[in-house]
Amino acid sequence: MRKTLVMLVLVLAAGAALRGDDARTRRIGEQLICTCGCTQNAMTCNHVGCPVVTQMQAEIRQRAASTDSDELVLQSFVQEYGTQVIANPTHVGFNRIAWIMPWVALGLGLALVLFFVKRWQHEPAAAGMAPPPTAVQARVQADIEAATREFLDS
């Protein structure tokens, strides 16, 4: 049992070493989009014949190995490739709209639904349709019909 556990740990460690991606490299790579136009994560782009993924992954690994902060590494990619390389928009300037608008749209949609539900609940009966007769109205109608029959029979 112990040998199996040791073998499993060695196999997992060898697989991680062959891949060469440490946690920082993956974290930075997940925040970047491949620039080939496939809109996939830069570390997991599986676009067949992608002309830029290998170069971009090598750059990510190289810059992640430096002592620069993650934010500085991401900013270097923005300077080189433009803002479209960032997977999540930043929380500054015009990009705030990308974070705020889904919530605003959700709120407006809920308000619109509530408005129409309340409107339909309180809507009066459709024109041309008489409301159902009450007991008094039904009795009066029966008396009128009885009186009409008596008059016609006499």
Structure characterization notes:
With about 150 residues, the protein is mostly helical. Among the domains are: about 70 residues, Orthogonal Bundle (Helicase, Ruva Protein, domain 3), CATH 1.10.8; about 30 residues. Helix content is about 60%, strand content about 0%. The chain contains six helices and no strands. α2 packs across α3. The longest helix has 26 residues. The protein is elongated, with a radius of gyration of 36 Å.
Topology:
Elements: H1 2-19, H2 23-30, H3 53-64, H4 70-81, H5 96-121, H6 135-153
Helix pairs in contact: 2-3
Can you describe this structure in just a few lines?
This protein is mainly α and 154 residues long.
The biggest beta sheet is recorded as: none
Compute the CA-based radius of gyration.
36 Å
CATH topology of the domain at 22-88: Helicase, Ruva Protein, domain 3
What is the CATH class of the domain at 22-88?
A: Mainly Alpha
Structural class: mainly alpha
Overall shape: it is elongated
Question: How many β-strands, per DSSP?
Answer: 0
- The sequence of SSEs as H and E is HHHHHH
Observed structural traits:
154 residues; mainly alpha; 62% helix; 6 helices; elongated; Helicase, Ruva Protein, domain 3
